[in-house]
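Collaborator request, handled under Task 6.
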Amino acid sequence: MELALLKDLTCRISTPSYVFDMDIFRERVDLVKNAFGKNTGICFSIKANPFLLENLPESFDKIEVCSPGELTICEKTGVDMSKVIFSGVNKTKADVERAMDDGVGVFTIESYLHLELINDSAIKRGINVPVLIRLTAGSQFGMDEADVLHIIDHRQEYKE
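Structure tokens returned to the collaborator:
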């Protein structure tokens, strides 16, 4: 964006405000993707900037959604739901079933309870859903290494 145009915008827009140059945004996303290789996936978390969804660069492979409100934003903007990773804690049965009905591509598992909720909802719908198990870094989020390994070792017990 030209500096003169930016100065003009800042004079007409009250503060605080943010101006995003989508060309530079696309260039930076492509730079990251190229630096790590074409087989590297890039995920955009809509938490901070959901208004960018309508103009996301094609280089983003996935979109992280952490709440029912963020899922609603995706529905309203026509996001390809197969690109959505529905993550985070404190999901209700209704939240998980809604995401499945929307065709969300991947779910994260934060606990055994969360795993059962996702598995039961998938069985009820007669579908398989890809999952990612969140390993904790010592916080309240995710599961410890022993629990993750237990789930992996017993994965045949869950619906395929």
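The cover message to the collaborator said: "The chain has a mean pLDDT of 88. The chain is about 40% helix and 10% strand. Please let us know whether this matches your experimental observations."
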